[in-house]
Design brief:
Blueprint lengths: L3 H6 L7 E13 L2 E17 L15 E6 L5 E8 L4 H13 L8 E10 L10 H13 L1 E7 L2 E5 L2
Parallel strand pairs: 2-7, 4-5, 5-6
Antiparallel strand pairs: 1-2, 2-3, 3-4
Helix pairs in contact: 2-3
Length: 157
């Protein structure tokens, strides 16, 4: 049976950033940039989901998938949506991507998502961002974080 890595690598032009051992990775689009730093070097690659793996423009999807191979049997998925201001639409894009059966694999032990925008709504305890964070954990076992771009963070795996 094909692994998630095999399935993703089979798409034309993928991965966007080849598999390599690295301690951090950076993605950008439309003037937004996101950089993730890891505590150690991992084999990792970046896949373009929107216009890459999923070319159908009628399907809502997020921009990038950073995939880490933690120990040759365990994967870590980090979905990234680089947005201007429409955070509600960004949430929908990431959520729809998480539901896509292509990204389901028993080797994935941890998944997270980041939405990077120019302006993130304030945390009021019941804002769209806080509701989305709770929904992503309960529905998809995925920690969702919002960052104002350009964003740099240390990822704890």
């Amino acid at each position: 049976m094909a692994t998630l890595k095999d399935k993703l690598d089979a798409f034309d032009g993928q991965p966007e950033q080849e598999w390599n051992k690295r301690k951090g990775i950076s993605v950008g689009e439309r003037g937004q940039v996101y950089r993730a730093n890891f505590s150690q070097e991992y084999m990792s690659a970046v896949y373009a989901i929107d216009g890459g793996i999923i070319k159908d423009y009628d399907i809502v999807k997020c921009d990038k998938l950073v995939l880490l191979d933690l120990d040759n049997q365990t994967l870590f998925e980090l979905f990234v949506e680089l947005k201007g201001a429409n955070i509600q639409h960004a949430i929908k894009q990431v959520e729809t991507t998480l539901k896509n059966p292509l990204f389901k694999d028993s080797a994935v032990k941890k998944r997270e998502a980041r939405i990077v925008g120019r302006k993130i709504p304030s945390n009021t305890g019941n804002s769209i961002t806080e509701i989305a964070k709770k929904n992503f954990i309960s529905r998809y076992n995925c920690r969702l974080e919002f960052k104002t771009g350009p964003a740099v963070e240390n990822i704890k795996i």
